[in-house]
Amino acid sequence: MSETRLTERAAKLDAADGLAERRELFALDDGTVYLDGNSLGALPRHVRDRMADVIGRQWGELRIRSWDESGWWTAPERIGERIAPLVGAAPGQVVVGDSTSVNVFKAVVAAVRMAPEGRDEILVDATTFPTDGYIAESAARLTGHRTVVVDPADVPDAVGPRTAAALVNHVDYRTGRLHDLPGITAALHQRGALAVWDLCHSAGALPVGLDEHGVDLAVGCTYKYLNGGPGSPAYLYVAERHQDRFDSPLPGWNSHADPFGMTRGYTPAEGAVRGRVGTPDILSMLALEAALDVWDGVTVEAVRAKSLALTDFFLECVEAYVPRGRVTSLTPAAHAERGSQVALACPDAPAVMESLIARGVVGDLRRPDVLRFGFTPLYVGFADTERAARVLAEVLAAANSAAGG
């Protein structure tokens, strides 16, 4: 298909896009195609003014009174309730705070503590983001367990009578492959093990269905598709049926049944509050709360439909523009197996991504040879998508010429 026809199609698709107006809510410039929201989401414009109030009035004027008068103390649960619908959770099961790594540690240790006696194995996703693996190994050493590394697709066959829990990424951070959360969770439960899911690359991009599929525990970051800002706090999901047995390895005064009693002994609070530890990081937490306003009136299903349309269109444009064999898609073509990014294997990926960014197409790199392009449906359009593929083709053509190819 010619460049003209693809640009015309992009314009028609943008004109029919029910989410197109959401782009105006973000601080983006027209000269850049931002396809790195799977690493750091764009800034929602109104967050600046909201944070000016948090810093100037709540902290600057009210000071300590803001824990009550500005709702600082209840922020972890309040913001958790706003994230819950985006991951398919009923109220009372999501709490916000700490980093993803800390929450992975809480979830894995709590899972093995809840598992039946005699189970000493933790299955770990072989393709996981490295930190998840590091944390799982540490949790295993601390609890007297051992880790067994398996490909996500092989979890149903790998789980056995010694399996306590499995830690799996919903979407592969490198390739964008979407794993079978319902099927893997069901297989674990059939054999008496618990399912712990990392939602960093799926929450805010596609339906998750934590309650629907009976997930036990889940964690996720908020600075990617939820646009919470760099280092914004993560969240922890504890299914209601497990909350009375959730034994956090990091008990803190914030999760105490009487936090201001300052008693020597620890008595856990009821509900998902057990996932709290210490004093919340209020500034970044309230920036996240403000950022979540962009989701008002938006369904995850609408976001998913546009995500698939964008990634389909990008792959079509790459096929049309880029010389055959120059890049290879690592992202599954099947919608049921695709997250919200496209990963392309490219031998000279570092130099190519550097050139793309210099020309206003911002993706990212996973060494040694993977170009990643994240499609955030709330602010990425079809014209952006066509331009990204076209510039990629131009960069690759220039690289071929420079190499004498």
Structural class: alpha/beta
Helical residues, percent: 25-40%
Spell the H/E element sequence: HEHHHEHEHEHEHEEEHHEEHEEEH
Mean pLDDT score, rounded?
97
Strand runs, count: 13
Point out poorly predicted stretches: none
Query: C-alpha Rg, in Å?
Result: 22 Å
Largest sheet: 7 strands, mixed
- As a percent range, the share of strand residues is 5-15%
Span of the ends, CA to CA: 24 Å
Shape: globular
Q: Please report the number of helical segments.
A: 12
Strand order of the largest sheet: 2-8-7-6-5-3-4
How would you describe the overall organization of this protein?
By secondary structure, the protein is α/β, with parallel strands linked by helices. Helices cover 37% and strands 13% of the residues. The chain contains 12 helices and 13 strands. Strands 2-8-7-6-5-3-4 form a 7-stranded mixed sheet, sandwiched between helices. A 4-stranded antiparallel sheet has the order 9-10-13-12. A two-stranded parallel ribbon has the order 1-11. The radius of gyration is 22 Å and the shape is globular. The mean pLDDT is 97.
